[in-house]
Amino acid sequence: MPIEYKYEIKWPEGDQAGTKYPVIFALHGLGSNEQDMLGLLEELNKDYIVIAIRGNLAQGSGYAYFHIKSIGNPIREQFDQSVQELERFMESVTAKLAIDPARRYLLGFSQGAVLAMSLALTMGEARIRGIIALNGYIPAFVKDEYELQSVTHMPVFISHGEYDPVFPKQLGDDNAEFFRQVSNHVTYQTYPSAHGVSLDNKADVTRWIREDSATKNH
Questions:
Q1: Residue 166 contacts residue 71 (beta carbons within 8 Å)
Q2: Which residues form the Phospholipase/carboxylesterase/thioesterase domain (predicted)?
Q3: Please, are residues 28 and 112 in contact by the beta-carbon 8 Å criterion?
Q4: What single DSSP character describes residue 15?
Q5: For the chain, which domains are there?
Q6: pTM score, two decimals?
Q7: Beta strand segments in 39-152, E
Q8: How far apart are CA 1 and CA 178, in angstroms?
């Protein structure tokens, strides 16, 4: 059965009829919700459509896109469905709204970063402009069993907290090493933080995506 995701949209200031806008699809962490991601992207609302997607599964007082057996080990059936359904959701929303399909970004934190990296690899550079993955990991089965598309020219921003007690920094190092093997445009930053997004990290994300959009436009 298809998943009907709940989501919230923030529109650019001075929205003009007939204009196609870049979009940022935002995916939250385990037990959180879409509002958490809107706060992270508030400085980008002026120029981008921001679509924050709520996970469809209950998790404590919040939500999840999939549950896990252990750290780094998602329940495969739920994960596979989330990848497929999020891809379907993004295509459906793009067709309905004033979105430029050549400027679709995907940003995720924690569980959302796991999905952002996985979707980048399965959708490829032909369908995703760039990704921002904050404090996540790439499941082994994605690398080994999924049908991966080219991301050679896809800009990738990966960051990780140096003192993350949930996903150790080594996972961030591994993410960067993997993407550097398949993409020519990888930025990797670490911060003296735990499992969260510091102000410096937020500022770097904002600057990175603006610079990449400027490059795309010219």
A1: yes
A2: 23-206
A3: yes
A4: -
A5: 7-217 (3.40.50.1820)
A6: 0.96
A7: 49-53, 57-59, 62-64, 68-70, 73-74, 99-109, 130-134
A8: 33
Alpha carbons 22 and 103: distance in angstroms, whole number: 5
Contact 65, 29 (CB under 8 A): no
Distances (CA, A) of 129 to 29, 77, 91, 212: 22, 27, 14, 9
Strand order in the sheet with 99-109: 7-10, 49-53, 21-27, 99-109, 130-134, 156-161, 186-191
User: Could you list the pLDDT tens digit for every one of the 218 residues in the chain?
Assistant: 789 999 999 999 876 777 899 999 999 999 999 999 999 999 998 899 999 999 999 999 999 999 999 888 999 999 999 999 999 999 999 999 999 999 999 999 999 999 999 999 999 999 999 999 999 999 999 999 999 999 999 999 999 999 999 999 999 999 999 999 999 999 999 999 999 999 999 999 999 999 999 886 54
Structure tokens at 205: 């994300």
Phi, psi of 60 (to 5 degrees): 60, -130
